[in-house]
Amino acid sequence: MSSWSARRVGLTLLLLVGASCAHAPRPAVTRPQDALVELSSNVQLVDDGESASLRVALDQSLIWLRTRPADHRFVYGPREVTAGALVSALERLRARLTDGMSSLDVSKAVLEDFELLESAGGEDGTVLFTGYYEPVLEGSLTRTDEYRVPVLSAPDDLIEVPLEPFAERFASERVFGRLEGKRLVPYWNRAEIRGGKLSPRKLELAWVKDPVSLFFMEVQGSGTLRLSDGGERRVGYAASNGRPYRSIGALLIQEGVIPREQMSMQALRAWLAANPTEQDRVLDYNESYVFFRFLPGAAVGSLGREVTPGRSIATDARLFPKGGLAFIHTDHPVKMADGSVQWRPLSRFVFNQDTGGAIKGAGRVDVFWGRGPEAELAAGMMKQKGRLLFLVPKPRVPVAEAAR
User: Fold this and answer.
1) Are 217 and 223 in contact (CB under 8 A)?
2) Contact (CB, 8 A) for 221 and 11
3) Is 87 helix (H, G, I), strand (E, B) or coil?
4) Ranges of H-type helices in 120-247
5) Distance from chain centroid for Cα 257
6) Which tens digit of pLDDT belongs to each residue from 378-396?
7) Distances from the Cα of 305 to the Cαs of 11, 60, 310, in angstroms?
8) Gap between the Cα atoms of 365 and 370, Å rounded
9) Distance between CA atoms of 194 and 345, rounded to whole angstroms?
10) Is the four-CA dihedral 400, 67, 350, 354 of positive or negative sign?
């Protein structure tokens, strides 16, 4: 999302959890022309979602695509498609989709106008799927004994500068600093901000109870504050302090307190809750800090349009067509009645409507899960391999030629 994607680093980076593989490394994909290739094997297009949610996501992509010039060209690997052709194909699909359609009927409707290309994957040739969600925090617009942790807006002395001249001093895609006289220096780090460096500025948008929950909202880049009067206010990314992001999950793995194979957002939160005297030290290890702003409505993605739970994905915006129709096949966690977690197939059509700071390369996908416990579970635990395919409109035969 414009607020979300500008910041979101992804829980995989937060936890430093990755899968090793035995494949020889491939050159990293750097061009959109190389990001999509012919299918490596057959795939069944079994959509396990509701057709109504697919229509909602489709409508959001259509709204954005209609703002593009009709001759704007989108790169689908070896193919190029104009915005006009993409809009026409999606409008025809939209007309075919109705509530309650079977998976088979949805697939037939899609394949009337679209054909498949597959992601080239990462250096190991595979695609890693993670998830993100919209956290909900209890908050207050005024400070009380219960609500004491500030949600800060961006300070006016935070200066954004081009990365190139400062590449050796900053480790961020968007570089921020502050002036000391005529010299640009890195902005205050997390520990300094937490310690009150900005307190005199009166930057507080709101207050929350729990610094750990606020930290995780920073990682997501957006969230909802549930106020004591029953109302809600959405907040999203405004800026960061430009400090390098350091994984607290990696820190606790290195310290031997959480085994790598057991690391998840849930494991991190449980450890921090059980070790309150260690919270400041661990959180301050990540010097990066996020400033927020109030959002006027629902969560939006990098297209500036609302994202749909389970139907919107984030990919590398340099490689894959924005707003495009895609299909994903992987696994996701489901909490059972007895509290255990089982992994179930995730197989559905989605739309490429977001991006993120850690979503780099042809081998990364982040699935938006919305809000609530199930969304938090999926976002916290997903780090699964799978397949990413994009649906490219079939070439249309000109009417005059077809009539011959």
Assistant:
1) yes
2) no
3) helix
4) 190-194, 211-220
5) 28
6) 998 999 999 999 999 999 7
7) 23, 6, 15
8) 16
9) 42
10) positive
pLDDT: which is higher, 17 or 270: 270
Between residues 166 and 205, the one the model is more confident about: 205
Q: Which tops the pLDDT comparison, 293 or 169?
A: 293
Both tokens of residue 391? 């649906």
Catalogue the E-assigned strands of 46-99.
73-76, 79-82
Interatomic CA distance for residues 80 and 75, integer angstroms: 5
Token pair of 283 as six digits: 């959180």
pTM for the model stands at 0.82
List the one residue out of 61, 88, 55, 4 whose CA is nearest residue 351. 61
Give strand pairing partners of 385.
128
For residue 84 the two structure tokens come to 């006009």
Structure tokens at 264: 């998840």
Which run of H or E residues covers position 54? Answer: helix 51-65
CB contact at 8 A, 135 and 208: no
For tokens 């790169």, name the residue: 75
The residue assigned the tokens 């489709």 is: 58
- Are 135 and 216 spatial neighbours (Cβ–Cβ below 8 Å)? yes
Tell me how far apart the alpha carbons of residues 64 and 144 are, in angstroms, rounded to a whole number. Answer: 42
261: DSSP letter? G
Q: Mutual orientation of helices 103-111 and 83-96 as an angle, nearest 10°?
A: 150
CB count within 10 Å of CB 398 equals: 9
Phi-psi region of 196 (alpha: psi -120 to 50; beta: other; left: phi over 0): left
Residue with tokens 């969230």: 223
Q: What pLDDT is stored for residue 8 in this prediction?
A: 54
CB-CB contact of 159 with 178 (8 Å)? yes
Whether 245 has a pLDDT exceeding 90, the answer reads no
Reported residue count of the chain is: 404
- Provide the CB-side half-sphere exposure for 321 (13 A, CA): 32
Query: By the 8 A CB rule, do 242 and 155 touch?
Result: no
Beta-bridged to residue 235, according to DSSP, are 223, 294
Q: Please tell me the distance from the alpha carbon of residue 376 to that of residue 136, in angstroms, as a whole number.
A: 10
Other Cβ atoms less than 10 A from the Cβ of 278: the count is: 14
Helix, strand and coil in the chain, % to nearest 5 = 30, 30, 45
* Residue 161 pLDDT level (bands cut at 50, 70, 90): low
Integer Cα distance of 351 and 273 in angstroms: 36
